Amino acid sequence: MEQEAENTRQEALIIVVVAVLLGVAILAIVVIFKNRAIHSKNQSLAAQITEAMTYKEKYLQKMSEKVPSSGSSTDINALSDEQLFRYYSSGISGCCTASCMPSCER
């Protein structure tokens, strides 16, 4: 009788240990797959950021080439953010009036 009780207790303990190990294994698999998905998304985002920075550098280089140097007393470095925005907007849209850019001469 006592031997059967001990065997039953050991079987229960073995079942609990196997269940815990199975749970840990499933959790590890889920964590690994989530980590791979996050890593993949991070690589994609890093590529997009690199592409955006390259585009920004090319855009700024083109815009600096388009800065009027003859007959204009506009110093790009001296403009405020709003004035700089209006300056570039006027260059893009072709608007060159006193309301767009006070120093614009046409």
- The pLDDT mean sits at 82
Strand segment tally: 0
Rg, Cα atoms, Å: 34 Å
Largest sheet entry? none
Q: What percent of the residues sit in helical stretches (DSSP H or I)? A: over 70%
> Poorly predicted ranges (pLDDT <50, ≥5 residues)?
none
Structural class: mainly alpha
| Shape annotation | rod-shaped
> In DSSP terms, counting alpha (H) and pi (I) runs of 4 or more, how many helices?
2
Question: What is the distance, rounded to the nearest whole angstrom, between the alpha carbons of the first and last residues?
Answer: 109 Å
Strand percentage lies at under 5%
The secondary-structure element order is: HH
How would you explain this protein's 3D organization?
With 106 residues, this protein is mainly α. The chain has helices at residues 2-65, 81-93.
Task: Describe the structure in brief.
This protein is mainly alpha-helical.
Write the layout of secondary structure elements.
Elements: H1 2-65, H2 81-93
